[in-house]
Amino acid sequence: MARLLLLHAFLFQISILFIKIDAVPSSLLNSEYQQIQDLCFGNEIDPDRTAFHFQPSKNWLNDPNGPMYYKGLYHLFYQYNPVGPLWGNITWGHSVSTDLVNWEALDLALDRTDPFDINGCWSGSVTFVSGEPVILYTGIDDKHRNVQNIAFPKNGSDPLLRQWVKPSDYNPIMVPRGDIDPDNFRDPSTGWFGQDGYWRTVVGANMKGRAEILLYKSQNFTNWTKNEFPLHESLSSGMWECPDFFPVSLSSRDGLDPSVNTGNIKHVLKFGLMKTLRDYYLVGTYDEKKDVFIPDEGYEDDYRTWPILDYGHIYASKSFFDGKKNRRILWSWVNESDSEADDIKKGWSGIQTFPRAIWLDADGKQLIQWPIEEIKSLRKGQVQLRDFELQSGARHEITGISTSQADVDVEFELPSLEGAESFDDSFLLDPSKLCDEITPSDKGGIGPFGLLVLTSDVEGLEEHTGIFFKVYKNSDKYMVLMCSHLRSSSRREGVYKPTFGAFVGVDISKDKRISLRTLIDHSVVENFAAGGRTCMTLRVYPKHVLTGQTSGLYVFNLGSLDVNIKELNAWEMARARVNIRNDDFISKDSV
Ligand code: DQQ
C-alpha cells in the first residue's frame, strides 16, 4: 500500500509538471516557448537542439542502456559524460517518463566509484529477476580491462529507482580470461531464463581477431560461468558491440518477454560492428539445448550481406520488452556529425532516436520499425494532399504548417513500372554508391521522387536535404532504391555530408506504391520507408536553422514518369518536455 501511495504521489507530481507545460497558451509559437524555457533554465538558445528527441540538458550522450518499464514509469539510462560535451568520464545518466515522450532527468544511476569501474561505467542492460530490475554493465577497471559488473536497486519500492548498489563482494562478476581480449569484452545483454533453470546473458568479445558473442550462465544471476561455445561467432567482421538478443513473433506485432522460447517465433541477434559503426541484425533460431543461435538459410559470414538496422547515422541500439503495452521498443544513439569545436560551443553532443516499436515482418525476414503511437500526442496543425499529380520535373511546397519540427507521412503511387533503368550488379552490395550517381540534372526513368526537407527559404533552395526513391530493374526484378543526399543539407563547413543508400525490401510490382514517413526535428531527420521496412536517420545542420530562419518542405519528382501522391499528411509537432532539470524532483535525500 505504501508503495502504491508513493507511486501515486509521484505520478501526481509528474502530471502537475506536464499540466504546467500543457498550459502554455497555444498562441505562443514554438520558438517563443523554447525561448521562455531557455531563459527559465539558463540555457542559451540553440536551434540545433531537438524538440522531441531524447537528449540530456547538456554534455555528452552515447548508447542507450537498460531501458525498462517499472512501477508505472519508463526508465532510460544512457552513456553520459557529466562534465563535458565530448566522450569521456563515462557514467550512466538516468531519466524517467510516463509516456516515452516527456522525460524527467534524475541523478546519475551508476558512477565511476569502485576499482571494478573506476575508469568508466560502459554499456549494459536491465533484466527482471524475481520481479526486480538488475543491471549488468561493463566496467573499465583499475587495470583498464573490460569487466562485467552487477548493480541492484537500493530500494526496489522507489519507482524512480534513484539509487543503485554495486556490491564489492560480487563485482566484477565476469573477467577476461584466456583468449578474451581485455580491451574488447563488453556490453552484457538483457538476461533470459532457460527451461533448465539457468539464466543466460551474452557479452561481445574479440578472441584473437574472431568476433564472439560469448554466452554466460548462472543459477542465481550473480555467479556466472562461461559456456564452452559462444552463442554465435564471426571470423570476418571484427568486434561486435552491444549484442541484443530477443524472440520475435511470426504471427503478431506484439513483443515478447526475452525468456519466451516456444510457439510461432524466431530469434533476432542484433549488434553494432565496430568496423563500420553500423548496427546489423540476423534472424534465426535459438537452440536452447545447444545454446547456439542459427541464422536462417542464406546466411554468409560477410557483413556486407547482412541487413542494416538503419541505413543512416545511428549506432549501439538497444531494445526492451514493454510489458505495459506488449511491444518491443528500440532506441538508438544518433551521434553528432559536426566538429568537436561545434560540440564544445553547443555544450552538448548526441541524441537518441525517437522510440520505435519493432517487430518481425510477415515475411519472417526483416525487422519493421515504426515510431511509437505516443508520438501523436505532439501533433498539432495538420495539412493534407490527396491524389495529387506530381508531374515529371515538378516540385511542390507543403505550406500551412511550420516544418522544422514535423511528422510527415506520404504515399507515392506509380502509374507503371515501364521505363525503369537498370544498374550494374556491382552496386548491389553498395547502394549508397548508386545513390551518389544520381544528380538533379540527370533525368531518370522512375524517380528520383521524394521529399526535400529543411530547405532554406531562398530561390533555388540553397540548403535542402533530399530523401528520395528511384525504381530500377535488375535481372527481371524491380528494385526500389532509397537515397539521401546530405551534400546540400548545410552551407556550413566542417560538417559530415555523406550520401546514404539502401534497397527497400518491397515488391513494388505488386501494388506500385511506396510510402515514406519522416520525422523532422531541427538537426535530425528520421526516415521510414515502406511502412518501416527500411530506415535512414540523418544528422543535418542547416545554416538557416542556426540563424533562426524558417524551413520549407517540398515533394518533388525528377524522373521522366509522372508520380501520383496518393495521400500526404504532415503535422507540425509540439515541443516535448525533455530532461529539463528539476532539483526537487530528483533529490536522492527523499528516497
Ligand atoms: N559504447 C560504450 C561501450 C560500447 C560502445 C562505451 C558502443 O560499452 O561498446 O561508451 O558505442
Automatic annotation (TrEMBL):
From which residue to which does the signal peptide run? 1-23
Q: Which GO terms describe its molecular function?
A: hydrolase activity, hydrolyzing O-glycosyl compounds
User: Which UniProt keyword terms apply here?
Assistant: Glycoprotein, Glycosidase, Hydrolase, Signal
Domain Glycosyl hydrolase family 32 N-terminal per the UniProt entry, residue ranges: 53-371
Q: Can you give the residue ranges of the Glycosyl hydrolase family 32 C-terminal domain?
A: 374-572
InterPro entries, per database record: ConA-like_dom_sf, Fructan_Metab_Enzymes, Glyco_hydro_32, Glyco_hydro_32_AS, Glyco_hydro_32_C, Glyco_hydro_32_N, Glyco_hydro_beta-prop_sf
What biological process terms from GO does the record include? carbohydrate metabolic process
Domain of life, source organism: Eukaryota
Family per record: Belongs to the glycosyl hydrolase 32 family.
Which PANTHER family does its entry note?
BETA-FRUCTOFURANOSIDASE, INSOLUBLE ISOENZYME CWINV1-RELATED
What name is this protein filed under? Uncharacterized protein
Q: What is the lineage of its organism?
A: Eukaryota, Viridiplantae, Streptophyta, Embryophyta, Tracheophyta
